[in-house]
Amino acid sequence: MNSGFTFVPLRFLAQAMTLDPGHHHVLHPAAPQAGHIEWLYWITFWILFAVFVLMIVAFASAAAKSGVIADHPLPILEKDEEGDRRASWGVASAVGITVITLFLILVLSVVTGKRVEGLTSKNPVTIQITGHQWWWEISYPNSQADQTITTANEIHVPINTPVVVLTNSMDVIHSFWAPSITGKRDLLPGYSSAFWFEIDKAGIYHGQCAEFCGLQHAHMGFSIVAEPVDQFQAWQQQQLKPAREPSSTDAARGREVFLTHACLMCHTIRGTDAGSRFGPDLTHVASRNMIAAETLPNTAGALAGWIVDPQRIKPGTEMSPNPLAADDLQALVVYLQSLH
Ligand code: CUA
Q: Which CATH architecture has domain 3-24+242-336?
């Protein structure tokens, strides 16, 4: 950050050029949809660049001419019909060119919109994404209830496979945006909509809520893990299993702590008595890379800090503080970290 690029546009450009694949960026598309959007971006960029250069040239030549006139402080005012006609033509052509350019950009936008929307398939992977203040509920619906996967903030998809995303929101308007994958999509409370995407390259792509939704809007991130089909299927099989039985006395005690404290009021761990859907499903919480909607890494220390005082990390979050005894907290963290 401190590498001398204090001028923001330059730093932005430098980041655009150097980001690793997998990091999120509109100029690093990893999906055909994002590729179409990038194409529109560059076309618009070069059109506007040409307009900018022409404006500067026109300005400079006008300034140069007015400099010549300034040498004669009292120009002779006489009717110059030829000059007036040329000026009218100049203004009329400038207006015409402007209208044509704007119309061209409009057509290109519509074409890009059609191309982004154009993906369909008879056999897509279907994902239901529900926005909450401030996290993402992710489920893979199935007609058999016990074959439905529910997770949070980390979306797994197979590469080269069309994915249809069904959206909804539990509270306010959120917007799903993974810049390397596709454009923004609003999640509206009480209104279900759908969009499609498909990812070419395996990797982890970050995304972010892009509609201001309250105090922790900036900490409402998610990630998309795009992986080969066999890895995706292995992940699915793993997620379908109920939670692991504790394999140590610490973990067993941790489960007891979970089931006798406020945790079970909000969270589900399938295979135990905890079945509330208010907060994220924790059945396989240890399989996720991050916690608290991509705010913290999924490590023992971060998990413990989050459980004890989430209001300190994300003020306003629905999760209340849990002042547990040190050994209870440690056992709880051991248990949660065993839930792969
Ligand atoms: Cu959700 Cu901003």
A: Sandwich (2.60)
- Ligand 1 atom closest to Cα of 131? 1
Assess whether pLDDT exceeds 60 at residue 1.
Answer: no
Domains in the chain: boundaries: 3-24+242-336, 32-67+80-117, 125-239
Atom of ligand 1 lying closest to residue 133 CA: 1
CATH topology of domain 125-239: Immunoglobulin-like (2.60.40)
User: With b meaning 16 or more CB within 10 Å and e meaning fewer, what string describes 295-312?
Assistant: bbebeeebbbbbbeebee
Is ligand 1 within 6 A of the CB of residue 34?
no
The model's pLDDT over 198-247, given as tens digits with 9 standing for 90+, comes to 999 999 999 999 999 999 999 999 999 999 999 999 999 999 999 999 99
92-119 pLDDT per residue, tens: 998 999 999 999 999 999 999 999 888 8
DSSP 283: T
Asked if domains 3-24+242-336 and 125-239 share a fold, the reply is: yes
Distance from Cα 303 to the centre of ligand 1, integer Å: 22
**CA contacts within 13 A on the Cβ side of 261:** 19
pLDDT, residue 74, reads: 62
Q: Provide the CA 205 distance to its chain's centre, in angstroms.
A: 9
Burial class of 317 by CB neighbour count within 10 A (0 to 12, 13 to 18, 19+): buried
CB atoms within 10 A of CB 234: 12
The response to whether residue 213 sits with its C-beta less than 6 Å from ligand 1 reads yes
